[in-house]
Amino acid sequence: MRYVGHRAGLIPNEAYAAAKADEIIDALETFSGILSSTVRISAIEERIEARKNLFEADGIGTKSLTVLEEKVLQTESGWIANSEEISIADLKLFTQVFDLFSGNWDGISSDIIKDYPNLIKYHSLVANEPRIQEHYSNISGEDLRWTYQPGAFN
What we know:
By secondary structure, the chain is an all-alpha fold. It is built from seven helices and no strands. The chain has one domain: Glutathione S-transferase Yfyf (Class Pi), Chain A, domain 2, CATH 1.20.1050. The protein is globular, with a radius of gyration of 16 Å. The two termini are 30 Å apart.
């Protein structure tokens, strides 16, 4: 990902922002494990319940989204690494977080993200970036990538 980021011009030029992008990408590895405890549950009712519990008030999903909500609020530029332009950290955060609410995961409602207004604002920033818009312009509402389109959660 970092190699492709360099080739595509998605690594911040400023050293501190580049380091922040790396930090965020590494931290998101923990976030990607949120569902790991549920993927091997074969009984669908049990799997759905386990996933719903992740997003209860004290659940790891809720805690993780709350941290990300604060992180996007702290940036001056709006981009997660506080870079001048979109970076690979934004691509990682955008796809990883909003994929959760695509309908691909039993028991996780797209309504959950609506409790995080800063993440919704961040979603709008990334989804409306011209390259992102172009990349996802030909998908339908039935496609699991609907969450990457502008206004997906409005």
